[in-house]
Amino acid sequence: MKISTRAVHHGKEPNELTGAVKPDICLSSTFKQHTPGDPVGDFEYSRSGNPTREALEQNIAGLERPEGADTECHGLAFSSGLGATTTILFALLSRDDHMLCSDDVYGGTFRLITGKDFRGFEKFGVACDYVDMADEESLAGKIRENTRLIWIESPTNPLLKMADIQSIATTYGSDGVIIAVDNTFMSPYFQRPLALGADIAVHSTTKYIGGHSDVVGGALVTKSRALHERIKHYQNALGATPAPFDCYMTMRGIDTLPVRMEKHQENAMKIAGFLEGHAGVAKVIYPGLASHPQHELAKKQMSGFGGMLAFYLKGGLPEARRFLENVRLFTLAESLGGTESLVEHPAIMTHASLTEESREALGISDTLIRLSVGIEDADDLIEDLDQALKA
Ligand code: P1T
Hints:
With 391 residues, the protein is α/β, with parallel strands linked by helices. It has helices at 3-9, 51-64, 81-92, 107-114, 137-140, 165-172, 187-190, 225-238, 244-255, 257-276, 295-301, 317-326, 356-362, 378-390; strands at 33-35, 38-39, 74-78, 98-102, 127-131, 147-153, 178-182, 200-204, 218-222, 281-285, 308-313, 331-332, 342-344, 368-372. Helix 2 (51-64) packs parallel to helix 9 (244-255) and helix 3 packs across helix 8 (225-238).
């Protein structure tokens, strides 16, 4: 089946007892056993496993499964995207291990690994080198004997840099070096990391997968059952698991993922074109523009360009503030991937946990603006941006 069909049906079959067409929300935290160690059904305790969560895990696994593949994929759901990331890092890394990470990752991922205010995994003895994965050559010199994980975010947040996932997986992936791809920006609708050779696809389901800015969650999908079991053990041990209602909300969102992604992209493309021609804008970054330095890679490894774009305003922080205070239809807020259009200032908001020097080196400057383009009418969105740029 194609992804639009899997979004609606995979793991969401009608309940055989009641006929309910939509997944049940099973709130029970615990499950009866006939005799110790012999549960009545498949579940014992909802942190370890829950029917509603299982439906979501199967649904997301169905989305990330490479088309035409004959092997099942395995999904795990979490209480947030960072819950998923934390669990992967705990499952795969030990003291004195080394990992590589895209240099321009979501600020919270950076904070979790080595952030300035919270040293996260660094304080457990895990070393990390941040690499510009758009320049694959720079990876070669950074791989060490003790490298266990390559964490790719592609496209990156907020600068939309891409890594050639297939090439990196082929060159550097092995049983000892796991390739994980944060696929939040594209969603499985536009990019399938497992089909490109990655071992793990990771999501903040808070974004496009949930799609309505009303539920926080995370998920990951693996091809290998052994890797799945390893991380599942930590999912239970660490306990960053989602509530059944949140799982239901996320599944509800997934039904419309394909139609939403098409509209996000259509609108983003129009807005990127508008901004590129605007006198108040210094530079637009969108993978769908021919001016994006990795436009060819985007066309090769993604089936669309998504709804995220970034641009540099002319001027400085005062001009950026004026613009952000004057948008009316776009809402100034963190997060992304919802039906409504959002705008934010990465340097002050989502990427404040990076040092000023790191932000400067990456290009997360005071005039960088990030848009999460919603599914409203593109002309209305453009009119809003135009009046805020004029202000
Ligand atoms: O917020 P949470 O569900 O824990 O997801 C973290 C996360 C992981 N990966 C990427 C690429 C992300 O963008 C995020 C969260 N990002 C935002 C909140 C933001 O505004 O960029």
